[in-house]
Amino acid sequence: MPESLLRVVANYLIAIPLLAFVICFWLNPGSRRDFLLRGVVVLVSGFLLAKIGGALIDDPRPFVALHRSPLIPHEADNGFPSDHTLLGVSLALLILPVTRWLSLVALVAAILVGCARVACLIHSPLDIVGSIGMAVIANGIGLGVATIFSNRNKSTGSNLSSSKVSEQ
């Protein structure tokens, strides 16, 4: 893959999961509050997991370890986890209950971002795999919190499980 394409994928393809999240938000007018609550919990959980993981795992960026220049200018700090992959996979999994096909598109884009960042020597495969695991855990936390609030609010008619738009 040409270096210029790797740079574009590594830096800008993250827009696809972000756009997918915005689309799902607007396509669910009846459950926006619940969707946003789950989104906030997922993103905050992911952020906290990233901070904890980064403190526990010191993984030098490949361009530092290999004494090479990265394709994308970057600080020579700890590479674990990949924030781009964590955000993209978190958003892809977050929209899964709303639309499977758009979630799959967002997930593929997020994984491509991670792979491109590995190819650019910004991250190692460990950083990407760790980020995917953290995104799964963060979404589990988000679903758990949302379920608790949903059960509390059943009498008011607020329910996260009613956020289905498409099963395609």
CATH H-level superfamily title: Phosphatidic acid phosphatase type 2/haloperoxidase
The H-and-E topology, N to C, reads as HHHHHHH
Strand content: under 5%
Give the overall pLDDT as a whole number: 89
What general outline do the C-alpha atoms trace?
A: globular
Uncertain segments: 158-168
Proportion of residues in helical segments: 55-70%
Please characterize this protein's 3D structure:
The protein has helices spanning 3-12, 15-27, 32-56, 62-65, 83-94, 100-119, 125-152. With 168 residues, the chain is mostly helical. The protein has a single domain (3-151), classed as Vanadium-containing Chloroperoxidase, domain 1 (Up-down Bundle). The longest helix has 28 residues, at 125-152. The chain is globular. 41% of the residues are buried.
Features:
single chain, 168 residues, Vanadium-containing Chloroperoxidase, domain 1, 67% helix, disordered C terminus
SSE diagram, text form:
Blueprint: H1 3-12, H2 15-27, H3 32-56, H4 62-65, H5 83-94, H6 100-119, H7 125-152
Helix pairs in contact: 1-6, 2-5, 2-6, 3-5, 3-7, 5-6, 5-7
Short description:
The protein is mainly α and 168 residues long. It contains seven helices and no strands.
